[in-house]
Design brief:
heterotrimer; A alpha+beta; B alpha/beta; C alpha/beta; B: alpha/beta; Rossmann fold; 5-stranded parallel β-sheet; globular; C: 2 domains; 6-stranded parallel β-sheet
């Protein structure tokens, strides 16, 4: 019975053994336990004993050979025995069994492929990058204005809310960061627009008399700063009218209507890139000159963005004048929590009927927007009526 | 040793020892041919211990085993083909290919498993013994461990608990004289027996090359345990003919003379066969038949295992947690 | 969950869970040092010996490795043991039994053996117990496939989670917190049996600006920080992780997507711990929804000092969480 002599696997994953030397020769008679050959491992030279007895035959490996482990390198045959057909079993079967471990796969989000292109070192959070890709916004346009911090998601979202057809792919456009003022305006108008049920009433006022009186007054003034403007008189007129129509001079706060006895008049001042609403406090009690001075001063400081905090808050009613731009009539968004805002248009020479005849008069349209929760149409109409009277018979304003 | 045994019982012991030896010799060959991956530790020469001990146990008694655990597994009751399958890493193996040689186990025959940690099974066997005591099911546990484990702290802890709680456990030390590459004497202080005596555990040294001596010592210990009289410590003196593992070919830590002495004069199977023939008056043909049957069974087992399938790769993530 | 009507401490909640489960299943056995006659060094097993007798609760020698190994053997042979390891610092002694034996028995045996073992142990610094009795080593065992880890922060959670652990057929390491034991909370009547599953974190507080993910006693610290932040107008969401195996990825990711910012607060040493794992999970699953990297806040990487003035520095606190939150929001 032939006994196979193999290059033995020893332990711990070697694929080959190096045959150092045979200690017995082909044809020699071997007893079980005799030392047959030496092999080399990482660690040492090892002598291999014969697993059985017989004549060493068909030695197929020589000193110095690197033999795959498990491979037959000789046989022990009995006297007269023939060599059997040897089946060489490879170790390939065994190692194939070790399949690929799939346990290490961790689910991760699909990477937007666009993000894989590295943008030129623009610091942006992962969320910002994703949004920029989705909204097709170029991150590098931001980096100048955000020198000191990484671009965040909210930066992208603020741009992204602009209508998409305004962003033309490939064309240059400016990205303007919303500064504090812009944000404040944005926030307030949204709030107002969403929460308030407004009514809107328009009336035309004949300002001819008022204008004439202003001219007279100004002719008598030596100092430039004493020369009053229509805008100042408008403030005074509105303030005084409000004292008679307090329903429009109020706030809605927590479902309660606060009706004020004094008029703190907010006046919209246009700035280069926004607006501010400085407040003339106790406007109803000021004289024409005082209101004029106050208005000038506040407007000036507003334009320089040097208003104090208390000068920007506490208004009970707001006045907005776009007359200087030729706008004839417009409506405004309520300056919450106020219940009323007056929009004043330009003074325009208009042909009107006066006692049956057509005359050219200086006509100015005013529009009151009011919060219908506190102000009904009639109240608003009556306010307008009084306002009209005030300016069409303006003697009281000039006292 | 003048007890009389049933012939069937004696032949069963012989058959089992032949099976263990035949199995282990084939494992050696298959490993050399690189058909068994990984690490194996064969117990050729030590057959009398697992066979003698397990002969004194019931199927539902528990054992824990060591890294050199093929003999324990076979003797406690296992099919040769499914053991080869496990060693090949096939799905039909006792552990579906997931344990391999060092973790082979068989729940149906009470084998809580071989263990890759020296002493790793000792406290588990104590736990099984405590379990038997609390559930009052009259089972006993045997913890197999080698002379190397004598110096693991876990043995001291387990013996202490076994003694204090009167557990039905047998601490079965297979002293094969060497812990890996180091003679036991060089690293073990005191005597082995005194380790049990220190915890008031009845301790005895037994000739581990004599299967009947092993069987008798174990039977006495089992009786004690089942009577509720607690643990025993049996120290079996035995010898492994081959190296510690498959890389240990030189066995430079011992002499060939010593090996020859054990092999030629104290071989458990040869000596038992002589005993059967001369003392128990058993026919040689009975032994030869068994030899032939065992050889066939092993050859068939290898064939079956080779034909068996490897586990489905997706099975890698199964059984991390029980349902 | 039915009406929570009784206010009890975490100790009482754990005691109730143990007693109710021992009542429900005679296979549940409790072993540990000083658990039976002394009723536990923290009185967690108060009354158990009286109720169930010495064959259901056993005092062991001081042999952590041995008793845990015994627990494994018991679990493999039909019982459902609860092993108490007095301080989780002693996990060092039981690692072979837990990691090489308990965790792997089911797998190595190809599904033949189960190990329905619960190891109850104690974590947390702040009691001046010094370096070897103040650690939180839950990351060690969470790292091992085959083990399950739970750590409650309230009585309600503690009771439901311990019941789940006891009824589960796997080795579960249940971490109680020595700083939390006297915390009170509402639980249902005893008749109202409930369990809390693995892998389900708990939203302890809703918020929009930042997510605070915390474990064990750090949940309470996070809630306090959230309260303080709330007064300053920052809305913090607090998630109690509850179990580490598995981590409740869905809840974490949903929250991270909502707030874009996360801090993980855990009492393990900051490096190589639970905080890093949770941060990684969020990074992997919600990377493109984050405005800043997930922050880790663990215990300081020093052995826990004895002197109170030193120890207190090493534990994540309210002030620290508030500070880090503000940094993240400013960025």
């Amino acid at each position: 019975m032939a006994i196979e002599i193999v290059m033995p696997a020893l332990e711990m994953a070697q694929d080959v053994g190096v045959l150092i030397s045979w200690l017995k020769s082909d044809g020699e008679s071997i007893s079980k336990g005799d030392l047959l050959f030496e092999i080399e491992t990482d660690k040492a030279v090892i002598e291999i004993e014969s697993p059985g007895s017989g004549i060493l035959s068909n030695v197929s490996a020589s000193a110095g050979d690197k033999v795959p482990i498990g491979q037959v390198i000789a046989y022990l045959l009995e006297e007269g025995e023939d060599l059997p057909k040897a089946a060489i079993l490879s170790i390939a079967d065994v190692s194939k069994a070790q399949g690929e471990s799939k346990l290490c796969v961790l689910g991760s989000e699909k990477t937007p492929s666009a993000l894989k292109k590295k943008s030129k070192l623009v610091a942006a959070s992962p969320k910002a990058r994703r949004l920029a890709t989705e909204l097709d916004i170029d991150l590098s346009a931001f980096s100048a204005s955000l020198a000191d911090r990484a671009i965040q998601a909210k930066d992208i979202l603020d741009v992204g809310s602009i209508k998409i057809d305004d962003l033309i792919k490939g064309n240059a456009y400016d990205v303007i960061e919303m500064n504090g003022m812009r944000r404040a305006i944005a926030q307030r108008v949204i709030q107002s627009h969403q929460n308030v049920p407004p009514i809107s009433l328009t009336l035309s006022i004949d300002m001819s008399e008022t204008i004439s009186r202003i001219d007279d007054w100004n002719k008598k003034q030596a100092k430039v700063e004493s020369k009053i403007k229509l805008s100042s008189l408008l403030c005074l007129g509105v303030a005084k009218t409000l004292t008679q129509h307090r329903e429009l001079n109020g706030h809605i706060i927590d479902d309660k209507i606060h009706r004020y006895n004094v008029v703190h008049l907010g006046v919209v001042v246009a700035l280069e890139d926004g607006l501010m609403i400085p407040v003339i406090r106790n406007a109803q009690s000021l004289t024409m000159e005082k209101i004029h001075l106050k208005l000038n001063e506040l407007t000036d400081r507003a334009r320089k963005q040097r208003l104090k905090k208390e000068e920007m808050s506490g208004s009970t009613f707001t006045l907005s004048n776009l007359g200087m731009h030729g706008v004839e009539q417009f409506t405004s968004i309520l300056n919450l929590p106020e219940v009323g805002i007056l929009s004043v248009g330009t003074v325009k020479d208009t042909s009107v009927g006066v006692e049956g005849k057509i005359e050219l008069r200086s006509i100015m349209q005013v529009t009151i927007n009011a919060d219908h929760r506190a102000v009904d149409g009639v109240a608003a109409a009556q306010f307008l009526k009084t306002l009209k009277n005030t300016f069409e018979s303006p003697a009281s304003l000039f006292e | 040793m003048t007890r009389e045994y049933e012939k069937d019982f004696l032949l069963k012991l012989y058959r089992q020892m032949m099976t263990v030896r035949g199995f282990e010799e084939q494992v050696l060959r298959l490993f050399e041919k690189a058909q068994i991956p990984g690490i194996v530790h064969v117990s050729v020469g030590q057959e009398a211990v697992p066979v003698g001990v397990c002969a004194a146990l019931n199927t539902d008694d528990h054992i824990t085993s060591t890294h050199r655990g093929h003999g324990h597994c076979l003797a406690k009751g296992a099919e040769v083909s499914r053991m080869f399958a496990e060693l090949f890493g096939k799905v039909d193996g006792y552990c579906q290919g997931k344990g391999g040689s060092m973790h082979i186990a068989n729940q149906k025959s009470g084998n809580l498993g071989a263990n890759g940690i020296v002493g790793g099974g000792i406290s588990i066997a104590a736990g099984a013994a405590l379990s038997a005591k609390l559930q009052k099911n009259n089972r006993v546990s045997v913890s197999f461990f080698g002379d190397g484990a004598l110096n693991q702290g876990i043995l001291a802890e387990s013996m202490n608990m076994a003694s204090v709680w009167n557990l039905p456990i047998i601490f079965a030390c297979e002293n094969n004289q060497y812990g890996e590459y180091t003679p036991m004497r060089l690293v073990t202080a005191g005597t082995i027996k005194m380790r049990g005596e220190a915890y008031s555990i009845p301790s005895v040294t037994v000739d581990g090359m004599n299967v009947l001596a092993v069987y008798e010592a174990t039977s006495s210990a089992v009786e004690l345990a089942r009577k509720g009289e607690g643990p025993s410590f049996l120290v079996f003196s035995t010898y492994r003919y081959y190296g510690h593992g498959m890389g240990d070919r030189n066995r430079s830590y011992r002499t060939r003379e010593e090996e020859r002495e054990w092999r030629e004069k104290r071989d458990p199977i040869d000596n038992f066969k002589q005993y059967l023939l001369k003392i128990e008056d058993i026919a040689e043909s009975d032994c030869d038949n068994i030899q032939g049957e065992v050889a066939q069974e092993i050859e068939r087992g290898i064939e079956i295992a080779k034909q068996a399938a490897y586990p489905n790769p997706e099975a890698v993530a199964d059984h991390v947690y029980a349902e | 969950m039915q009406n929570n009507t009784r206010e009890i401490t975490i100790i009482q909640a754990i005691n109730e869970a143990i007693c109710e489960e021992m009542q429900r299943d005679e296979k549940v056995i409790l072993i540990g040092e000083d658990v039976a006659n002394a009723q536990g060094v923290f009185k967690v097993t108060d009354g158990v010996l009286n109720k169930f007798g010495p064959e259901r609760i056993l005092d062991t020698p001081i042999s952590e490795a041995g008793i845990t190994g015994v627990g494994v053997g018991m679990a493999m042979t039909g019982l459902r043991p609860i092993v108490e390891i007095m301080f989780c610092d002693f996990l060092t002694l039981v690692m072979d039994a837990l990691v090489n034996q308990a965790a792997k028995m089911h797998y190595m045996s190809g599904g033949n053996y189960q190990v329905p073992l619960v190891v109850r142990t104690l974590m947390g610094a702040g009691k001046r117990a010094a370096a070897q009795h103040s650690q939180s080593l839950h990351a060690w065992v969470a790292h091992i496939p085959g083990l399950k880890v739970m750590l409650p922060s309230t009585p309600y959670d503690a009771k439901g989670m311990l019941k789940t652990a006891i009824r589960d057929n796997n080795p579960v390491i249940f971490f109680e917190d020595k700083m939390n034991y006297q915390i009170k909370g509402l639980v249902p009547e005893p008749e109202d049996d409930y369990t809390i599953p693995f892998g389900k974190a708990d939203l302890k507080r809703e918020g929009d600006d930042i997510t605070l993910i915390a474990t064990s006693s750090m949940v309470l610290v996070a809630l306090e920080a959230a309260s303080e932040l709330g007064e300053e107008g920052v809305s913090a969401e607090v998630i109690d992780l509850r179990s580490l195996t598995p981590i409740d990825e869905d809840m974490l990711v949903e929250s991270a997507m909502k707030t874009s910012r996360c801090i993980v607060i855990d009492e393990g040493y900051q490096s190589f711990g639970v905080t890093a794992e949770v941060a990684s999970v969020i990074n992997e699953k919600a990377f493109y929804h984050l405005d800043s990297p997930v922050q880790r806040m663990g215990a300081m990487d020093v052995p826990v000092p004895f002197s109170p003035i030193l120890e207190d520095q090493t534990i994540p606190n309210v002030e620290g969480i508030v500070r880090v939150t503000k940094q993240l929001l400013d960025n």
